[in-house]
Design brief:
Length: about 100
């Protein structure tokens, strides 16, 4: 075993470096990952924003279409259930207590 007092860990989510005390388990130091995006030009940033906007609009349209389709499917299922209920109106449903 090593005689170090602390352990340096790299966070799997944000890739920050964290220095943890071995004895207590408390965080001694937290160094966030340096931001590499800061050196881009304004044109590059605007182009990135435009592409994100286009992809989010496309995703929104796809979700709206699925909601419309879902409403139609639910309406069809409801109509089918109503039709079956009208056809079965003469039959009495079997309850578990009736089987005893």
């Amino acid at each position: 075993m090593t005689d170090t007092v602390s352990i340096e860990v790299v966070c799997p989510c944000c890739e920050a470096r964290i220095l943890v005390d071995r004895a207590t388990g408390s965080i001694i130091r937290h160094d966030p990952k340096p931001d590499a995006k800061g050196s881009g030009s304004i044109a590059d940033i605007l182009q990135g924003l435009a592409s994100k906007k286009a992809s989010s609009e496309q995703l929104f349209k796809r979700e709206m279409d699925s909601v419309k389709d879902r409403d139609r499917l639910l309406e069809e299922k409801l109509q089918e259930a109503v039709k079956r209920a009208k056809d079965m109106k003469d039959e009495k449903p079997i309850r578990p207590i009736d089987l005893e």
